[in-house]
Specification:
The complex is a heterodimer of chains A (about 200) and B (about 200). The two termini of chain A are about 35 Å apart. The relative contact order of chain A is 0.21. The longest helix of chain A is centred in the N-terminal third of the chain and has 18 residues. Chain A has about 200 residues and is mainly beta. With about 200 residues, chain B is of the alpha/beta class. Chain B is built from 4 helices and 10 strands; from the N terminus they run H-H-E-E-E-E-H-E-E-E-E-E-E-H. In chain B, strands 1, 2, 3, 4, 5, 6, 9 and 10 form an 8-stranded mixed beta sheet that branches. Chain B has a two-stranded antiparallel sheet with strand order 7-8. The chains are: A mainly beta (about 200), B alpha/beta (about 200). The interface between A and B is medium-sized, with 35 and 35 residues. Strand 4 of chain A pairs antiparallel with strand 1 of chain B.
């Protein structure tokens, strides 16, 4: 009986060990749309992605790094812009290249089930490159700022002891980076990330 | 170690190919038309103007010609004349003391850039195993052209015998345009449309 109990305990602990992870690597595509500076760009963009890395701090709290990139674009049809005695007629291709690096902490409601919802907050640096293309000419304005990113999401494992999972997350980004040349203020976007994560132990 | 690889992959992806831009075809569909006029001038005070009707000036670093002839020049100058006529000015020969001189010229800037890459650390290196390493020469060419139109007040001459430019127009890029002739003519109309002060 004692032998049976020992085998059971060892077997149980192996299952429990299979569910355990203390590092997370992830890659996701990011669909974003701006909430500010919409006179410059007001389109939904699927040109974004995120790399994430987390390490376990406590059973349900993980912390790590997010590296993000997204590009917002809009084509403004040909029109005339007048300033005093000067005028220019052109169509504009407005682009915002958005880079972010944040220190992010995610709190998981559970880390032992197939579905693992979480909420997190990232704080870090944002680099925005505003680029206007018109014919063969272009103008560019670069800006650094603080990036704050609250997010909610979930991992979904097909099996409870799987070492990888699907990921979906909804995030809001606030970047204090601005462009005085283009009279653009701080940039806010919301986005949906869909990807996968590797749960490592 | 896996962390390092992961971060390297992430940083590489961030900096490689993540700044998409519009295609050259999209960009070159329409010419840019930029104009500026002298706010101190009353354009109603002029009556006559002059412009050569089949010739454009040419400033180029790739050819020695200073005049541009042919269909393009004829179409552009005729369109300039029809716009000036429709604004109430009368065309005269340049020896008939016109009030205004209308000049139009193309600035063509042709550049060739070369970079030389050596496949090893030193140029002209000889290896007994692989032979002589030739440097790799990459050649890039850029070509751009702007049509510049100026309206000059021939009644006012400065102390240095220079005339006053009262209106300037830049139209570009006419080299990259898929239809430079028709797009330039259309751009000339646009230049006048966005300068409503020109007229009697």
């Amino acid at each position: 009986m004692r032998i049976l109990a020992t085998i059971f305990l060892i077997g149980f602990s192996n299952v429990a060990f299979g569910q355990y992870f203390d590092k997370i690597y992830g890659f996701s595509l990011d669909v974003t749309t701006p909430l500010s500076n919409t006179e410059y760009v007001d389109n939904i963009s699927a040109r974004g992605f995120r790399f994430m890395y987390r390490e376990m701090i406590s059973e349900k709290l993980f912390g790590g790094l997010d590296l993000t990139n997204s590009t917002l674009t809009e084509h403004k049809p040909r029109q005339t812009y007048t300033s005093g005695s000067s005028a220019i007629t052109t169509d504009l291709f407005n682009y915002t290249y958005n880079y972010g690096a944040t220190l992010t902490f995610d709190y998981f409601l559970t880390t032992e089930k197939k579905l693992m919802p979480y909420a997190g907050l990232g704080v870090g640096a944002s680099f925005l490159r505003f680029h206007q293309y018109y014919n063969v000419y272009s103008s560019q304005s670069d800006s650094w700022g603080v990036l704050i990113r609250p997010q909610v999401g979930m991992f979904y494992r097909l099996r409870e002891n799987s070492s990888w999972a699907f990921q979906a997350a909804l995030h809001y980004d606030y970047s204090s980076a601005k462009s005085e040349e283009l009279a653009l203020g701080s940039l806010s976007v919301i986005g949906l990330q869909v990807g996968f994560v590797i749960l490592d132990w | 170690m896996r962390v390092v690889y992961f971060l390297l992959a992430g940083v590489s992806l961030l900096f490689v190919g993540c700044e998409p831009s519009p295609s050259a075809e999209e960009l070159s569909q329409n010419l840019v038309v930029q104009t500026a006029y002298d706010e101190t001038i009353n354009f109603k005070n002029y009556n006559t103007y002059s412009i050569p009707l089949d010739t454009l000036g040419l400033i180029s670093n790739s050819v020695n010609d200073t005049l541009l002839l042919g269909e393009y020049s004829e179409m552009v100058t005729q369109r300039l004349k029809s716009n000036m006529d429709s604004r109430g000015y009368s065309w005269v020969e340049k020896n008939q003391n016109p009030d205004l001189g209308l000049t139009a010229f193309v600035v063509n800037n042709f550049n060739v850039f070369q970079t030389i890459n050596y496949p090893n650390y030193y140029g002209g290196y000889y290896s007994p195993y692989y032979g002589y390493y030739f440097p790799v020469v990459n050649t890039y060419a850029s070509n751009s052209g702007i049509l510049i139109i100026q309206l000059v007040d021939l009644n006012q001459k400065t102390s240095q015998n220079k005339f006053r430019v009262i209106w300037t127009c830049y139209i570009g890029d006419i080299i990259a345009s898929p239809d430079p002739l028709n797009k330039s003519v259309e751009a000339v109309d646009q230049a006048f449309a966005q300068t409503s002060v020109i007229g009697k």
